[in-house]
Amino acid sequence: MSRGALLVLADGRFPAGGHAHSGGAEAAVGAGRVTGAASLEDFCRGRLHTTGLVAAAVAAAAALGVDPGELDAAADARTPSPALRTAARRLGRQLLRAARVAWPSGELDALAGRFPKGAHQPVVLGVTARAAGLGPADAAYCAAYESVSGPASATVRLLGLDPFDATGVLARLAPEVDAVVSRAVGAARGAVGEGVDALPAASAPLLEVGAEAHAGWAVRLFAT
Amino acid sequence: MDGVNTAGVRAAARVRACADGRGGTCLPVLEGDGPLALRRTRGSGTEAHVLLVGAMSGPLGGDRLSVRADVRPGARLRIGSAAATLALPGQHEAGARYDVRLTVAGGGELHWLPEQLISVRGSELQITTHADLDHGARLVLREEQVLGRAGEEPGRLTTRLTVRLAGRTVLDQQLACGPGAPGGWDGPAVLGGLRAVGQLVVVRPEFEEKPVTARELGGDAAVLPLPGPAALVTAVAPDALRLRRILDGASALLAPARD
Amino acid sequence: MHLGHSLSHGGPDAVSAGARRPDGARRALRIGLGGPVGSGKTATVAALCRILRDEVSLAVVTNDIYTREDAEFLLREAVLPPERITAVETGACPHTAIRDDISANLEAVEDLEDEVGPLDLILVESGGDNLTATFSKGLVDAQIFVIDVAGGDDIPRKGGPGVTTADLLVVNKTDLAPHVGSDLARMAADARAQRAHLPVVFQSLRGEDGVRDVAAWVRERLAAWTA
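^ Those are the sequences you sent over. The predicted structure of the assembly is below.
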């Protein structure tokens, strides 16, 4: 693996559309559930162990070469909110565009042909990791970290939260990111032999419900 | 309950519903043992009604309980339970497991509407519900989890609900809460300090023609159309009563229009 | 283009600024409109749509700070059928969406071409931002920077990437100049000094045909694009 390539892919400035998404933070702020650094940390921890774990496992499985079509269907089944399914596909398409320029590969081209409207973002992330010469743990790290860094940076904009506090939240969650990645990679290796049912399905009811409410807001800063 | 039960109880209940050929539904298999008993009650119209009766409180740590319901073409079955199920601590180290498997053939219809599951302090329970439907099958499935009796800390509860439709998994979701669950389960992304969470799954072939539209239901609930002719209602509420009210309202919303 | 690898699967184009669509047809000319909040970007877009819609097939992408405000203004004004107007969310950073991470805008542009195409022209309107916000060349072929006389007649002198490098600088609301004490001659001289030979248009959309000069500039661009 190339640590340099991992930094490129994990960079928050990688131009794949993430900046317009709050990962549910805008809905949680609107509902009065995230009001400062402590509740942001709770929010991020819950997201990391649920949708973060699932995304990390799907990304790791894609990096291991599990069929992207099966993984996309598995991601669908694990994403009951249509607003979140649409967002995941849109982000997948955006990532694919950037990835094909950064790491041209036949597998990425084939993925674009198979999913012209986009595959779930973690699926694209895993295939991108392969194209970049990265492994399943790298893909899982990108997904798991993104599951908390997105809401943290969005909350800085939404609440005027002190950016040092937001970064402190991410630093405190780092050991849990490691643990989630290790679980995700284990499950992904299981999925290679047993199929995608072996992938985790941890869900977060308030993220699902909040995403639908947020999609109906007339005025909002973020796409999700 | 007196120490005999060190390995936990193993109990299974099974019901099979078939069309009786006269427009009604017969139950050629209806059996239960241990704490799980099934009783046929008065049906309505062409639908058979069955009640799951807990003959003792449980499940306790170490118990392995399973329910199988199999609905054949043209049969209509409704299963409820006589009372809420309490997950209780046991003397056994290992937690309890409750495994529900539902199969519905094309043209068959199943309503799986048990009362709430209450996760009592100190208990540890893992519930798996798997519904496998053929093309053209109908399902109304409601599950409700209540975290702790009034004012009480919950036990450790893990639920996994999967729905497979004509061979495709359209819903696979797991929820883990209580002491020892991965962090953040009680936080603003997952349950937000609320103590009752429920799911209603409705599968109707008519949704192919008239797809369900996603909508927020007020409170913390939403109707979520799944891939295929199916919808999930997810709801989180402060208590069991308010949760039931939301799910009943959603159920009416997704029910076929009455003539 | 600087990218050599083939795009053989018919998926979304991996490159952003290529002049051809995956099927080989020429894609629409994309013109960006940027500028500070309230300078009249949306009004200029609306006026351009009204004057050009019978000549060319066009569509609009808006980048609102609050999701759909500008798109809804255009819808209300009925300057184009609704399917020709798309809004892109910008996560509170409109300049990021048009410069640093243009992927959402590229998706919107391509979806418009797929769904209502073929298109000759797509106007990409930025959310109101500051004087440093410019469009990426990966997103647009040419950009218009819109300022107004009420924002202060020293803006052209201050310069900034929008004022100095935009392909067309529009100084809007000239009718307000006497009321806000702005010196149009000074603005014109400062703009010339900052922009060398790049064109500047002074306009007021209150008058009949107020967008005439900008529309003429767009027509020239279109002619060059299709030549």
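Chain C has nine helices and seven strands. The two ends of chain C are 19 Å apart (CA to CA).

Shout if you want it in another format.
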